Amino acid sequence: MDLQTLWFILIGVLFTGFLFLEGFDYGVGILLPFVAKQDRERRIVINSIGPVWDGNEVWLLTAGGAMFAAFPNWYATLFSGFYLALFLILIALIVRGVAFEFRSKDNNPRWRSLWDGAIFFGSIVPALLWGVAFGNILRGVAIDASMTYVGSFFDLLNPYALVGGLVTLTLFILHGALFLELKTDGVIQERVGKIARRFWLPVTLIAVVFVALSAFETDILQRLNVVNVLGLVIAVAALLGTGYFIFKERYGRAFFGTGLTVAGVVALIFGTLFPRVMPSTLGFDLTIYNASSSAYTLQVMTVIALTLVPIVLLYQAWTYWVFRKRLTTESHLEY
């Protein structure tokens, strides 16, 4: 395995971690106005992700940093071509982070309602747009010989990519509902349990539509390999298993199922792309070779990653262990 392949796999792993952790994070934020009717209930919902939401975003920063250092041409083309969409995601994440910090600065109901709305906005926008972005990458975009995206923002809003956005949006809502089922009790737990039972079938149907469209909108059938076939099998089996465990009220296993679904989808996308990083509809694909840094840069990065990444993983695992307990309706924690 060469270093370009190694870093392509590592970036895939980083996006898997990000979408798994930030996925339920977004889902909780989207569900906030629907499962919490009183201020105490809203505090409990927010407190369920309060200690971890910013740590979850580290995975995105790390993935972006790895992309910038290992594949600078990929980074440049992606962030310039998808500039407006990624700018909207950035604005939403800023608004969301500010809302978490400012919500409890005043007891005025209008003040708190404003920031609750900001949390909802800052969660639903990236949950939708990440799926749109990955759908476009998988489908291919207009990239010319100079590695420049020559399409428009509205070219990115094609039906296939929008269905991809609905996949991530609905999957994250289900993922968040199952997380809240494990972290809360009482009326909140009852509400999210109902949402999980009602939401599983729509998530599954949208995912089926997306897979069917992929056969026509992408070259996935011409690029079948062990990774993307295994990813598809894992995603399908995990999503079906999630439904089974939801209706058996075994929510821990159902949450694990949505996590496996996320991992399977990322494996499907990255397995189909390889060795490309951004397919071009004009015939000028970006690959792990023409988009990569020098061999020396990749060697230095590999040493640094092998040294520091395990430390970060241990720290985040410790954080989740410390805050593993269920939040009760008697909780007076305030974030």
What can you tell me about this protein's structure?
There is one protein chain. The chain has 335 residues and is mainly alpha-helical. It has one domain (3-322). The chain contains eleven helices and two strands; from the N terminus they run H-H-H-H-H-H-H-H-H-H-E-E-H. It has helices at 3-35, 39-49, 53-70, 72-81, 83-102, 109-139, 159-183, 186-217, 226-247, 251-273, 295-322; strands at residues 276-278, 286-287. It has a two-stranded antiparallel sheet. Helix 8 runs antiparallel to helix 9 (226-247). The chain starts with a helix and ends in a 13-residue tail after the last helix. The mean pLDDT is 91.
Quick recap:
The protein has helices at 3-35, 39-49, 53-70, 72-81, 83-102, 109-139, 159-183, 186-217, 226-247, 251-273, 295-322, and strands spanning 276-278, 286-287. The chain has 335 residues and is an all-alpha fold. Helix 1 packs antiparallel against helix 3 (53-70), helix 1 (3-35) packs antiparallel against helix 6 and helix 6 (109-139) packs across helix 7 (159-183).
